[in-house]
Amino acid sequence: MNHPEEADILKVENLNVRYGDFHAVKNISFSVKRGEIFGLLGPNGAGKTSTLSVLEGLLKPDSGIVIVDGFPAHKNSLRARASMGVQLQSTSFQPELTVSQILQLYAGIYGVSMSDENLSAILKDINLDDASTKKFSQLSGGQQQRVSLVIATIHNPRLVLLDEPTTGLDPQSRRQLWERIEAIREKGHAVLLTTHSMEEAEAVCDRIGIIDRGQVITIDTPQALIEKHKNDPEVIRVSRRGKITLEDVFIALTGTAIRV
Amino acid sequence: METIIPKTSTVLLSLLRADYRTQWSNRRSVVLSVLVPAVILISWKDIVDKIGGAFALSTCITVGLMSIGLMGYSNSIARDRDKGVFQRLRVAPVPSWTIMVSRLLVQLTMILIVTLAVFIVGYYFDHITISPGGYALAFLAALVGGAVYLSLGQVIVGLIKNPETIQSTTRLVYFAFIMIGMLGEFGILGKELQQDVHWSPYGVVKSLLSASLQPGQWKSETLTTLAITISYSLAFATLGIRWFKWNSR
User: Fold this and answer.
1) What residue segments make up the domains of chain B, in order of their start?
2) For the whole prediction, is pTM greater than 0.80?
3) Chain B residues touching A97 at Cβ < 8 A
4) ipTM > 0.90?
């Protein structure tokens, strides 16, 4: 049932997540197409992590449907997980394992055969050919993110989920990671990423979904969002530099109050 | 781009390879699991004739099993859960049970290594010799007894989320088991406690091992001990699995 090229790779319909009395995700629906980078933005506590946890299979929703590459995740979770690659926000691997051992582990887990040549090629591609015997904890933040990203795509998945992939990176590493994410798109993968960086969302994402208080407020391209809201009085009020940015639109839509 | 669902056997093999590598990197903890029983065994050199070889070996293997289940297993699970290692594995197409089975298989190997080490120390330092059948049965009994402490470790990581609290709790339980178990068994803490210790997780594992080392003396009470040992494992495992959360947050 692998679907044709134009089909949505990820489809989320009427998703609801509750923690006791707290309704964290309220009827969220969106889709991500093949070859698209979709950004899920929202302030802290907006419901991004809960939504992503459901997609990753770590959290069971109260209701709603998640379809990955044509397969309902609730009915066939293994196939859904095999169709996606995931980079978690705080990815950690066994600290005793070296970079090449971690790659071998995940290649095995995803059913990918990994010869020594393949391993060397992958390490060379992420500029870590000298670090194959280093332990993950010995790598810099940028190097760790590159390893995490290569593991997320080691099985050539149709959908890649990236949870705040550039948090804590210096500008050089961030730029490099953006290029890698764009390269993933070029290969035809669909990418869903969450980020707090509006600069990143504007630079990388084809479409953006802004969620707040568990609900999707708007979904559009970054430029269309700016264009649509540039004359809103609230957007003009929060604008700091005269030129309306995605961040101004985001703050105007989600409010200026700091969320915990 | 074809979606591949890996075979469970392939997944399990990959996990096992990684877990054995991790264990190999932590060989110091294995040495520590062997060290305490070895020190006890060597220090008993002069009284082995009085207390009996089976008593000495079974006590020391029990101490080693406690160390593996309570200190080694539970602390490694607590650390990896806290660091998000399990969450990373669980977003892959991996049945959750394979993650735990792989960890447990590594611990069962550790149990066999510690048991073997105790036999070697007992032979060289205390000149304790057991029949081949006794050795074979004792290895099996060590696996059954080790399951009690592994599942008890599972209960602790099920009840407590913070890895530091788990570490201090497991140490406390480990030392309490050794002190109350050994002193109680010798009758130093009173007759009533001696009886309680006999049917405690410490007592039944030790008795099972002791009986296994002397297959000729296997009696109906040993079967009761075996049944209670298995019951402890099942009860602890049920609670430990039910309470366990993959995420510490």
Assistant:
1) 8-243
2) yes
3) 18, 21-22, 25
4) no
